[in-house]
Write a structure and sequence with these properties.
heterodimer, A: 378 residues, mainly alpha, ABC transporter involved in vitamin B12 uptake, BtuC, 67% helix, globular, B: 257 residues, alpha/beta, six-stranded mixed sheet, four-stranded antiparallel sheet, 9 helices, 12 strands, ABC_transporter-like_CS (chain B), ABC_transporter-like_ATP-bd (chain B), ABC transporter ATP-binding protein (chain B)
Chain lengths: 378, 257
Amino acid sequence: MSTDLPAACPKGSQEPGPAPGPAPGAPPGPAAPPRRLPLPPLLAGLTAALLVSVLCGTGLGAAGVTWGETLRFLRAGLTGGSIAPGEVSAYTIVWELRFPRALLAAVVGAGLSAVGVAVQAMVRNALADPFVLGISSGAAIGANAVLLFGALGALGVWALSGAAFVSALAAMVLVYLAARTPQGLTPLRLVLTGSAMYYGFSAVTTLMIFSVDRGEAARSAMMWILGSLGGATWSSLPIAAAVVLAGIGCLLWTARSLNALAMGDETAAALGVDPERLRRGLFVLAAAVTGAVVAVSGAIGFVGLMVPHVTRMLVGADHRRVLAVAPLLGAVLLVWVDIASRLLLAPVELPVGVLTALIGVPCFVLLMRRRRYTFGGA
Amino acid sequence: MQVDIEDLSVEVAGARLVSDVALRAGSGQFVGLVGPNGSGKSTLLRCAYRALRPATGTVRLDGDDFHALGAREGARRLAALPQESASEFDFTAGEVVAMGRLPHQSSAGRVTARDTEVCAAALERVGAGHLAGRSFPTLSGGEKQRVLIARALAQEPKVLVLDEPTNHLDIAQQLEVLALVRDAGPTVLAALHDLDLAAAHCDVLYVIRGGRIVASGPPDEVLTADLLADVFGVRAHRVAHPETGATRLLFDRLPTS
């Protein structure tokens, strides 16, 4: 905001031909693109970082398990080796709690980041994130019905994620029906409808929390609304992982069309992409991935907003590059944020969503100010 | 490639915006569409690049029904420059031009050497080779327009549809853009705001009012003082260009009686 030019100083007067020479301090060469990192080393580096991060997520924790033991338990778990009877509780911590949790953090981070990219292109809005469509707050209603009222008790361990997923899809249908017009889904209507529904669904959730007079239940509901990976188990992993991977695959497949859509509906049409059909497909995909992710981790905010932007600052706006990098970046980020959420106030565990915001906001502002980044106008 | 628009009508939200339009652009011709604001120029053109579906009528490219062709096949034959140019996204000019190859690529297909070649040639063609690495949203209006024309050329179309390509450009840029498009090769169908520019650049002009074509033919025959008074509400003088002798137009307000 402080960079706004006074009205008397119009831009665009720099037209007449190429400048006689580079301005002082400007990088040499007129067409040097300074802010595109080469993709292969970046992807290799991020993949390595992700492996190390998951390892750290498994090794670090309040209960002191040495790195040697951690690696041994991991090998035992992966290859079916045996462990001494005295080590069962340490093994359980490593193999049953921390490892699936680190993996889930990676899956959730990747999913939220990829969907964030897709939704921002779909509604052509820099402030959009996976939650702007109201899907997460819809999921919260289902989750809270389970947490507060013990709904769907017959489903056992699947009750929470099942209820969250189903209510996420119900929310999606509601938003879709409310937003659609004879001309189809327009970006602005989609954002407005989603945002309005978000508040509506949140109000219902709050009402539910207040109507239940049990502190502990309200606390776990709160934890879920702010997002937490504390419920990670091996059983919660496969569906979320499959949906997220399939979603990322589909998005990579349509990356070129996303570029066209980002330029505008008419441009997309002129380039042979049906914007209406693409947006409908993206909406369903975003809802499915968000639903699957939110079902296992609650509504972890800010990742889906920030990671796409950070990725664009690193590799530019081409969706083929963004969609390759953003999921890895989001995965690494969330694994580390989850580690921090367990260690900072140990043994008390912080909601991950609180930390993603606390860490993310300053990083984001710094990056945005340092690099000349122009999403949303120069 | 010849473009034939036959009996075309467009309805949006129950309102008939274009009625029974017939229009022909012969292969390689530069055909202009002029009319007052709200006369249906853009609506008509939108049907020609698939952003709108006509209620009745057809758009034919060398006889083939354009809307019956697949979207990609259509985009290989016909490229368009819509009026919207706002991109929120920080694409480079080179990336914007590369989008023109979309109809020629499969989803998972790699960028071929030919793709890269065609894009580079298109940028050079519009004199914007030096802009390839620049951020598209930070370009000036004239630079943006040149990059967008390069994108359309990278589609290797046989027909080019332009919706007010000279909007927001200064006079030198307007002349440059029209010359570029003229020399590019494909059949051109363009909505133009500036009647004098249209008269100077088009082979054939169609005048549209209230969604109907009211006159058509070579600019000299079409843009008569009577028609300009009737359709545009201006008093027009036709004068000869002092150097070339070509007909130019001067405008005044109609006398209020």
